[in-house]
Amino acid sequence: MKRFRPFHLFLAGCGLCLTVFILLPVLALFLASNPIELGSLLLTPQVLQALWITFFSSLLALPPILLLGLPSAYGLSRCNGRLRRGLETLLELPMVMPPIVAGLALLLAFGRRGLVGGFLAGLGLRIPFSLLAVVIAILFVVTPYFVRRCSSLFDSVERRLEDAALLLGASSLQTFLHVTLPLVRRGLIAEAIMALAQGIGLFGTIILFAGNLPGRTQTLSLAIYSAFESDPQQAFGLGTLLLLISLLLLTSVKLIAPREIPQ
Fold first, then answer.
1. What is the mean pLDDT of the segment spanning 115-139?
2. Residue 175 and residue 166: Cα distance in Å, rounded?
3. What whole-number distance in Å separates Cα of residue 244 and Cα of residue 30?
4. Cα–Cα distances in angstroms (integers) from residue 246 to residues 13, 34, 243, in the given order
5. Which pLDDT tens digit goes with each residue over 4-52?
6. Angle, CA of 71, 99 and 200, to the nearest 5°
7. Given Cys at both, which of 1, 60, 73, 97 links 147, Cβ 3.0 to 4.6 Å?
8. At residue 113, does pLDDT exceed 50?
């Protein structure tokens, strides 16, 4: 049997401290919430509207995330050297951008006097402080994470399988659809759910670009922010509800995600 060395104790101690650090705030939130009040909140029109906007906007953002993200992730995985590093740097820029700065940038781009906002306004399309603004905010923030994770999935696919399909006469598109995608389909489904979860929890970018308008752009995260100023107990209940939704989605990801790297 292997001896339990001091370094192993150090690793176990760090893991235990991290576990306590993560679980302590979660436990505090659950203890601050009343299940009965949580049930009554679900019958409140404003909360139902916030839930509807949260899920509807996240679901609307998912198709363009997949449409833009999957080809981009696959293309990134097939690049090498400086080109890949440059593309990854560009991709990771929204990931390190503070959410409030991302909202400001979107406002300056799509606002009424923004780079393209004036042109769009001339066509009758005003994006800021609308449901479309919520969708665009989710798309801007979440897509880079989705592409980054999916490119790692495509990296794990054995190139010789694709080469064999090409040698047998399949086109590049056929190889991608019938060879590459099936090998990583479980991982892609899990990443799509993760993107949905990220969109549901988005806050800073939305509040600046789309505003906090009840019944129009107020998501569940924004409803928690508004409730905390006037009714902290309601904010605790809404926070617990959002945490439960996130936990459910995360559990789904863990159940669907492949346990082995595709070969």
1. 89
2. 7
3. 10
4. 28, 19, 5
5. 678 888 888 999 999 999 999 999 998 888 877 777 888 888 889 999 9
6. 65
7. 73
8. yes
Count the neighbouring beta carbons within 10 Å of the beta carbon of residue 251: 11
Ordered by start, the domain boundaries in the chain are: 34-256
d(CA 237, CA 239) in angstroms, rounded, equals 5
**pLDDT value, residue 261:** 47
Residue 232 has pLDDT above 90, yes or no: no
Strand, coil or helix: what is 84?
helix
Handedness of CA 149, 150, 151, 157 (dihedral sign): positive
At 233 the pLDDT is 87
**Position of tokens 């080469």?**
163
Which one, of 139, 126, 128, lies nearest residue 59 by Cα?
139
Packing angle of the helix pair 185-200, 45-77 (nearest 10 deg): 140
What is the three-state SS of 145-187?
HHHHHHHHHHHCCCHHHHHHHHHCCCCHHHHHHHHHHHHCHHH
User: What is the C-alpha to C-alpha distance for residues 263 and 251, in angstroms, rounded to an integer?
Assistant: 25
The pLDDT tens digits for 147-163 are 999 999 999 888 888 88
Q: What mean pLDDT is predicted for residues 67-78?
A: 92
Pick the CATH number of 34-256 from 1.10.10.920, 3.40.50.2000, 3.10.20.600, 1.10.3720.10: 1.10.3720.10
Structure token digits, residue 35: 């299940």
With beta carbons less than 8 A apart as the criterion, state whether 262 and 183 touch: yes
